[in-house]
Structures are given as structure tokens and as C-alpha cells.
């Protein structure tokens, strides 16, 4: 059964720092991996989608990498800003079930 | 503007009173799904639909029903709500297999 784990569960950094959020999954049979942002009480906003054949995707200050063989993905946020404060979720689309399996999320606080 | 809408956004009801949460998308996507989000349990899929008149159970379907009579709408029905269905519900849509998922703003349901 596919399981997705995100470490750390919470992170607090000063503004301007570069940071890395981690996501690991137990089954390498995935179609893709997606990173989302969720603000308190709000919906999920898609940040980056990496297909299983890709190694990384970039959007602005965000860079996501995927190492399918080791079951890991990282989300790199450059020059963090207070507006980046949110919960970040990763989710894998299982190649066996076709379902999107979510991690528990990392709650990020960027202090001014 | 491409979007997924849900109504109502907030609902407080009592045990046993049937309710429907609507979901509508204007992206002409075939794939739609419902999730619930609970503290400590993350996001879990309730039901999904690959196309009109095609629906299937997700991981936690008990106590829920869905219908897909038109491509744009995918209502979630609780025939007899119970307090353990108090949760934050999200509708999501996806253009095709392996594509990015887009989420609605969420519906916060409280069952007393």
C-alpha cells in the first residue's frame, strides 16, 4: 500500500532563507507527483507537477525534484517570504490504483 | 476563469438530516473526485468519477453517495449524516489521466 510521508511536520524560518521540504513514498510505481499549497481554511493550490519520467520542475522561486527509484521528492523554496507561510502537501498518483495519495503536509512559517 | 466551485462553503446540520454539497467545474474535465480532510488523517478520497455516469468508490465511501449526470457537476450526498462526517470536504477535477488536479475551495461541514 502506498504511503506518503512528509518531514518535517512544521518548520519556522526567518525571511530570506532558502529551504527544503521533503516528501517520501513507499512504492515507486507512480504516474506523477504533485506539490500543493494550502492556506488555513482554504483549498489546495497546485504548485508543481512532476511526471514519473521527469527529474524536476521549476516555477519561479520553487523547484521540485523527483527521485522515483529512492521514493523521494524535495520542494526547494528560494529566498523565502512571509507570504510563503502555508501548509505544503505532496501527493503521488499511484500507478497501481490510479489514486492520489497525500502526505500529511509540512506547515511552514516564514518570519519577517 | 477556470475554476472549481463548491456550495455551500460552510454548513452546520444535525444528525440524520439529508444534505447535498454541490461541485461544479468549467474546465470540461472528465475526471472529478471528492476528498475529506481531517486532522491527523490528511486528505482521503471518498468517491471519484472518470466520466459521466461512471463513478467508483475511493478509500472512505461509507455514508456517502455521488452522481455524475453531467460532465460539469459532481454532487456529494449524505443521506443520513452523522457526527463522524464532520470534516472539511474538497472537490477536485483533472483533465485526463496523469494530469494536474485542481481543487475547489472546500466545504466545512459540522454535524451535531
Account of the protein in words:
The complex is a heterodimer of chains A (112) and B (112). Chain A is mainly beta and 112 residues long. Chain A has strands at 4-7, 10-14, 19-25, 30-38, 44-51, 56-59, 62-67, 72-77, 86-94, 100-102, 106-111. In chain A, the strands form two sheets. In chain A, strands 2, 4, 5, 9, 10 and 11 form a six-stranded mixed β-sheet that branches. A five-stranded antiparallel β-sheet of chain A has the order 1-3-8-7-6, with no helix packed on it. Chain A starts with a strand and ends with a strand. The mean pLDDT of chain A is 94. With 112 residues, chain B is mostly beta strands. Helices cover 0% and strands 52% of the residues of chain B. Chain B has strands spanning 4-7, 10-13, 19-25, 31-38, 42-51, 54-57, 65-66, 76-78, 87-94, 101-103, 107-111. The interface between A and B is medium-sized, with 22 and 22 residues.
Summed up:
The complex is a heterodimer of chains A (112) and B (112). With 112 residues, chain A is mainly beta. Helices cover 0% and strands 60% of the residues of chain A.
User: Helical amount among residues of chain B, as a percent range?
Assistant: under 10%
Question: How confident is the prediction overall: mean pLDDT of chain A?
Answer: 94
Coarse shape of chain B: globular
Give a short account of the largest sheet of chain B: 7 strands, mixed
Uncertain stretches of 5 or more adjacent residues of chain B: none
SS content category of chain A: mainly beta
Count of alpha/pi helices of chain B: 0
Number of helical segments of chain A?
Answer: 0
Task: Give the DSSP E fraction of chain B (strand runs of 2 or more residues).
Answer: over 45%
The level of helicity of chain A is under 10%
The backbone outline of chain A, from C-alpha atoms, is globular
Instruction: Tell me which protein chains meet in the greatest interface and how many residues each side has.
Output: A-B, 22 and 22 residues
Radius of gyration over C-alpha positions of chain A, nearest whole angstrom: 13 Å
By helix and strand content of chain B, what is the structural category? mainly beta
| Spatial gap, N to C terminus of chain B | 36 Å
CA-atom Rg of chain B in angstroms: 13 Å
